């Protein structure tokens, strides 16, 4: 894959801007399913080989021991993952279903539509077909289950008497509440017939090989796509506690469903000792760490000191930006913690707590705008994107800024309204990519030049 940004020539208006964009490009490309599969998955004779990645052990699977091989999955990059697996296994794949909002051609696997970040009716129908296919897998079959970021919204399967509208409204209010992805997914899992390990129950007793592109801090398998194949450590009571903690107003049907589950009317999501997991192995093929490593390599190849601050940044986007800018300014002023020219990198997932009368934007645009308001001199460029190409509910992945991008007074006013997108668009600072083909959370780059 060769990845480019829209209006790249305009965005790369200085060498520092161009370097920031090059780091973003390298990071996104390193975390695509195609690159991850090429790096970790191969066919040796009749064996499927999954190499160790540092995040999960490797394993070999004798394909001659199975009657059929199916591919199932969901997420922003699920079709790209299925396509890469087809290139490895070819005719050995009997069929399958993946659900995504970023389709790509496949020969053996059906690519079905869904929507992100709010679930849709077509996502419900596509997920139903996926579950039907999963139920046909038998004991002597092998299921390759590929999940990537975005799977939680793309795979809606309302549990019990819940309706899609209940899930949509609940997703909307949770995304606006400032809740973490772990907390949001605790609620989603207990309103779903596929999440929280329930797909593992549906596909048992087939052998399952989970192949995951991680978009969560710490690569927690129970959180990625809300853990369709993973034991769930949360409960109905935990889900109710999230609603109370953030004082969110969800549909009465959702609260009733969770209360009935807490009271024992519904089976809990499966725990680690559930027999559904006896024949499930899951491998993390790529994560935000791969994106950060590749971005740092580009910086160092250009003669810059590359520093990965953290792959686990979280909290309010506008506040996280202030800390990042402070580190960059300290570097330029004093040579601490490293001498310029330098590139500081971070990943993770920041959040935005929306007011009642909010505008347009997303965490990466808020991060960039807050950084632009903090910068008081030239020589520092800040870029921040969501690696899936969709920041919030806008058509932008993020933004690239410096001290001259916006008037700080206007920027702070826009941040107060959670309305970063229009101001950044007016300044020509928005980064637009379209669907990137992957999703490994946020990627931030701060380029610090030497003083003249």
UniProtKB/TrEMBL annotation:
InterPro entries, alphabetized: GK-like_C_sf, GK_N_sf, MOFRL, MOFRL_assoc_dom, MOFRL_protein
One cellular component term from this protein's GO annotations in UniProt: cytoplasm
Keywords, ordered alphabetically: Kinase, Transferase
UniProt keyword Transferase present: yes
Keyword Protein transport: no
Ranges where the MOFRL-associated domain occurs: 21-259
Any one GO molecular-function label of the UniProt entry: glycerate kinase activity
Domain MOFRL: 343-442
Pfam families assigned: DUF4147, MOFRL
The organism's place on the tree of life at top rank: Archaea
SUPFAM superfamilies: GckA/TtuD-like
Name of this chain's protein: Glycerate kinase
Protein species of origin: Natranaeroarchaeum sulfidigenes
């Amino acid at each position: 894959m060769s990845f480019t940004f829209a209006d790249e020539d305009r965005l790369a208006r200085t060498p520092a801007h161009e370097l920031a964009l090059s780091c973003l490009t390298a990071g996104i490309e390193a975390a695509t399913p195609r690159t991850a599969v090429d790096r970790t998955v191969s066919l040796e004779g009749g064996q499927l080989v999954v190499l160790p990645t540092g995040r999960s052990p490797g394993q070999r699977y004798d394909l001659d021991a199975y009657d059929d091989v199916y591919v199932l999955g969901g997420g922003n990059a699920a079709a790209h993952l299925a396509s890469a697996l087809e290139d490895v296994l070819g005719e050995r794949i009997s069929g399958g279903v993946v659900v995504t909002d970023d389709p790509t051609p496949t020969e053996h696997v059906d690519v079905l539509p869904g929507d992100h970040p709010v679930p849709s009716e077509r996502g419900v129908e596509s997920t139903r077909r996926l579950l039907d296919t999963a139920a046909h897998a038998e004991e002597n079959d092998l299921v390759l289950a590929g999940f990537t970021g975005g799977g939680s919204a793309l795979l809606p399967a309302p549990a019990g008497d819940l309706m899609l509208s209940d899930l949509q409204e609940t997703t909307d209010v949770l995304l606006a509440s400032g809740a973490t992805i772990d907390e949001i997914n605790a609620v989603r899992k207990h309103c779903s017939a596929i999440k929280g390990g329930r797909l593992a129950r549906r596909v048992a007793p087939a052998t399952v090989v989970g192949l995951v592109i991680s978009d969560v801090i710490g690569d927690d398998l129970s959180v990625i796509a809300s853990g369709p194949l993973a034991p769930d450590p949360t409960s109905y009571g935990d889900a109710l506690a999230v609603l109370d903690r953030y004082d969110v107003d969800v549909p009465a049907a959702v609260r009733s469903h969770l209360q009935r589950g807490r009271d024992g009317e519904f089976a809990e999501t499966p725990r680690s000792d559930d027999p559904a997991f006896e024949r499930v192995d899951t491998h993390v093929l790529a994560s935000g760490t791969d994106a950060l490593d590749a971005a740092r390599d580009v910086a160092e190849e250009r003669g810059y000191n590359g520093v990965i601050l953290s792959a686990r940044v979280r909290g309010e986007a506008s506040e996280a930006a202030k800390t990042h800018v402070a580190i960059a300014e300290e570097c330029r002023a004093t040579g601490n913690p490293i001498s310029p020219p330098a590139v500081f990198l971070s990943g993770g997932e920041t959040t935005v707590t929306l007011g009642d009368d909010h505008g347009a934007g997303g965490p990466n645009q808020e991060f960039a705008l807050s950084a632009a308001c903090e910068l008081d001199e030239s020589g520092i460029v800040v870029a921040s994107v969501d690696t899936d190409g969709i920041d919030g509910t806008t058509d932008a992945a993020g933004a690239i800024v410096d001290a001259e991008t916006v008037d700080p007074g206007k920027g702070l006013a826009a941040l107060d309204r959670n309305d970063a997108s229009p101001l950044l668009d007016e300044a020509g600072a928005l980064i637009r990519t379209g669907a990137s083909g992957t999703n490994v959370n946020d990627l931030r780059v701060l380029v610090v030049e030497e003083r003249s």
